[in-house]
Write a structure and sequence with these properties.
It is a single chain. By secondary structure, the chain is mainly alpha-helical. It has 7 helices and 2 strands; from the N terminus they run αααβαααβα. The protein folds into 2 domains: about 1-70 and about 135-160, no CATH class; about 70-130. It has a two-stranded antiparallel ribbon with strand order 1-2. Helix 3 runs antiparallel to helix 7 (about 140-160).
Amino acid sequence: MVIWSPLILVYDVGFQLSFLATLGIVYIYAPLAEKFNISRDFLELKSIVLITFSAQMAVAGIIIYQFGAFSPYSLAVNFIILPLIPVIMLAGFIMIVLSSISMILAQPFAIGVWALLHFEIEIIKFFSQIPYVNINIENVSAAWLALYYIFIAGIIVYLQKPRRLYSEK
């Protein structure tokens, strides 16, 4: 996408958020998952929390810079919604494939995708009604944004460096 349209990096906030969330999941989640030993994770709840936290850390700077606000409830909303995303994507894919064969075959999947997306929207609406849902942080400078991502890069470097169980003498 960047090769086709390089300005997407500067002018498309949605692309920036998606890109940074993916980087957060790739570079922050894995070391945290290892540190918190989530291999024996009941219902994958720890995984969901860590994935959400990793993505939120990565996108918080852009959200604050671009929108002048941050919602502390966003972690809770993402925790509720995240398990639905793979189901919605799979059902949507099946719906698209089946629609090329028969709209009647695709109809149940379309209804399921609609219901799940409607549920997501209702969750978001519910949380948006809570008082103090956003913390306004106005007049954030580009310098602050740069410092935030330097800090995040430092955390990533720290998390990536190998750990020694015993010091060598």
